[in-house]
Amino acid sequence: MTAPIRVGAVSYLNAKPLYHRLREFAPGVSLEMDVPSRLADRLAVGELDLALIPSVEYLRGASSGYEIVPGFAIAAWGAVRSVKLFSHVEFERIERLALDIGSRTSQALTQVWLDAKFGVRPARIEMLPLGVPVQESTADAILVIGDRAMKVPEAPFHATVDLAEAWHELTGLPFVFALWVARPGVDLGDLPEALARSRSEGLAEARQLAETYGPRLGLEVATCYDYLTRVLSYDLGEPELAGLRRFAAMAANLGLAPEGVELVFHRRRDLAASR
C-alpha cells in the first residue's frame, strides 16, 4: 500500500481557499494543521512531504533541495490586514522589537522594512509567544500576524503599519508570504492538480468560508469576504516571483536568508524522467 502524502497547512483564514475541499479532491492525502513556523520545522525533518510554509523558510531550506509547487502562493499587492507592526514609539526610534513567533517570513519582512525605510536595526529582538496578548509586551514595537492581527486596536499605539502595504510602497511589487513547498525527492503525483481545484473551489465559495469563519474569529462576514477575494492573491505569477526575488536579496543583505538562492520548481517525476 502506498503511504499517504503528508500535507501541512495553516488554520489561518488567509490559507483556507488553498486547501478547501482538498480531502475530497485528493482523498489519499493526510492533511495536518499547524502554525507556519512549525510547518517549516516539520518539513525540514521529514515529518511532512508538502507544506504551506513561510517564503523565507523556502529560501533558508533551498540548499536542501526544496521545490516550490508552481503557481500557488499567499501574496498581497497592498494592505493585507493580518501582518502589522504596532509601535509605542516612532519607527525610527525602535530599539527593542518583539516578533510574533508564528511566521518567520513576517519576522524577516519587519526587519527588512525597518532597515530599508529608516536604517533601523533594533538592538534587541525577542519573540512574542503564541497566545500572549500584544498589550502584555513591553517592547518598543510588536509584530502581530494572522487572524489576531485583524483585531488588535490601534488606538493605544503611537504608530501602526500594515507591512504588505509598506512593502508595496517601498518596492512597487507584491509580497509573497507563503508557498506550497515539497521536500526533496517527493513525488506529488496528481496532487498539484487537486490543489489547483481546491483553490478554484475555495475562491468560488469564499462567501461560505467568510460566513463560516468570520463569526468564529469575531470579524464581520463582509470583512472576511473582502479579505479573501480582494486583499489576498493566491497566484504565483511573474510579479509575485519578482517580489519574492527582491525580498530574497534584501533578506540576504541582512543575514536573514542565504545569498544567491535560485527558485526551483516541482514537476512530476514521470515527466522529469522522460526529458
Could you walk me through the main structural features you see in this protein, from its secondary elements to its overall organization?
By secondary structure, the chain is an alpha/beta fold. The chain has two domains: 168 residues, Periplasmic binding protein-like II (D-Maltodextrin-Binding Protein, domain 2, 3-Layer(aba) Sandwich), CATH 3.40.190; 89 residues, Periplasmic binding protein-like II (D-Maltodextrin-Binding Protein, domain 2, 3-Layer(aba) Sandwich), CATH 3.40.190. 39% of the residues lie in helices and 20% in strands. Strands 1, 2, 3, 4, 5, 11 and 12 form a seven-stranded mixed β-sheet that branches. The radius of gyration is 18 Å and the shape is globular.
- The name of the CATH topology of the largest domain is D-Maltodextrin-Binding Protein, domain 2
The residue-averaged pLDDT reads 92
End-to-end CA span: 28 Å
Name given to the CATH homologous superfamily of the largest domain: Periplasmic binding protein-like II
CATH class of the largest domain: Alpha Beta
Radius of gyration, in Å, reads 18 Å
The residue ranges in which pLDDT falls below 50 over 5 or more consecutive positions are 271-275
Count helical runs.
Answer: 11
What is the total domain count? 2
What is the SS-derived class? Answer: alpha/beta
**Corresponding CATH architecture of the largest domain:** 3-Layer(aba) Sandwich
Tell me about the largest β-sheet. 7 strands, mixed
> Which bin fits the share of residues in helices?
25-40%
Categorize the overall geometry.
globular
Order of helices and strands: EHHEHEHEEEEHEEEHEHHHEHH
Strand content: 15-25%
The beta-strand count equals: 12
